[in-house]
Amino acid sequence: MICIGIEGTAEKTGVGIVDSEGRILSSVGKALIPESGGIHPREAAEHHAATIVPLIEEALSESKLHLNEIDLVAFSKGPGLGPALRTVATASRSLSLMLKIPIVGVNHCIGHVEIGKLTTGAIDPVTLYVSGGNTQIIAFDSGRYRLFGETLDIAIGNCLDQFSRSMGLGHPGGPKVEELAKKSSTYIKLPYTVKGMDLSFSGLLTAAIRKYESGEAIEDVCYSLQETAFAMLVEVTERAIAHTKKVEVLLCGGVAANTRLREMLSIMSEEHYADFYMPPIKYCGDNGAMIAWMGQLMHKNGLVTDIEDTGIIQKYRTDQVDVPWMKSSERILELPSDILEKGAEANILPGQWMDKEAVIKKRVPKGYRIEDIDNYLRKKRSKGEAKLLGEAKSCGVKTPIIYDIVKDESAIVMEKILGTPVKNIFEGSKTSNNFKFKDLCEKIGENIAKLHNCKIIHGDLTSSNMMVKDEQLIFIDFGLGMISDLVEDKGVDLLVFKKAISAIHHTISKECIESVLHGYRYANDYESVVSKMMEIEGRGRYTDKILK
517 CB contacts (<8 Å, ≥6 apart)? Predict the structure, then answer.
């Protein structure tokens, strides 16, 4: 079975040919490089229309195949620019009808993951997918790839491109920012915005532009922008590893070509006892081979549809697609015996306080972060967490007792909670607990309301950061927390929890969220916060609207 794949979600046209054994027979492409400004959807569509046929001819020549030897057509169904997607879909339908062969539309984002696995040997990774249009932390669970984290506004590639254009550096911006960043080691403080496993780049972009406009050297601004943005990306990826216990990390997407990002993610993986993978550079960016390989996988699993069902989905979610060829790995993360748990920012170590058993939460230096960022975050988060743990108690929310704070080591000595993680209860691995499932979710909502009424934002509301002991709910890990009475911050806090359980507890997430919101009714500004949560979710980059 020979499949030809046609890619055209944004500015690059790609054509690839892959056989059913996963041999890449050809992969060719041509990118649109605008003389000025960014990528206009209409210009991208015109570029695809002009280059698809020549690239098909080039791919056939490279693979030494004739057109009549092609058995299947695959094309990028989304996400992407609407006019570009329509052009590619139309060309693919024409090819399918002319050759009288099946056609299948595939998810562009999953294509990046699958070509990464094919070319590296990774089996079941946590994937950091970074490009001009997408920033996602992806991992497989129960039949689908799930989004464990994503940008809440613009993608990292878009951030770099916009910055580059604002500086008059041209397009694409990533390589230009990287080159200038190599000429500096002077860090300028910029906003560092991580919300659980999600992140935001718009404020960082604005601040970087203003730093340059205020007279800072362009090399220093590029260095600071890159170090800040990439540290955010690596942190949320590590948080997903800690949550899923997977042992592989895969980097893909056009921004994966950046040597500094590759270095940082490799260091983090080694520090977290995970294996790091990255496909060859030619398969990191958009390419036709990944679309062809996705077509092969979908065909093998009976997912080829009629030509009438080949409409595009401009905002095609990664977690909409069934992936029956994928299975979870039996390998799970193994930590050294002296580490009880390892998170994205701290190690949990066994300890003793007086005659009491304790745990030590130690924010260890992160080798992937420069010292300026690392020292600032470790001190800020340790101090902030110690304060919030105490204040949460006064608001009626149970938290661990703090025994001591070791400032020089960014460590907190606290009570060891001999309870059951809510994550385990949700997964059904612990059945002896007296809490009913919906009652537990409602109680979570009630406690979030108590925090918000006290202007406390937890910042990382996941099932890993809650425990049940003697039928009492206990909140832990306030490291990303802050004091805020803004409706926006409260809405994001709720959304972080909703997305976290939707990713790893998706079979029960709908009922749980309904119960959480029912419990949250005790919040002083309940209606405005819930409305804001829905508004923020609606700003998302992905939906399921099908267009012809």
Answer: 445, 494, 530
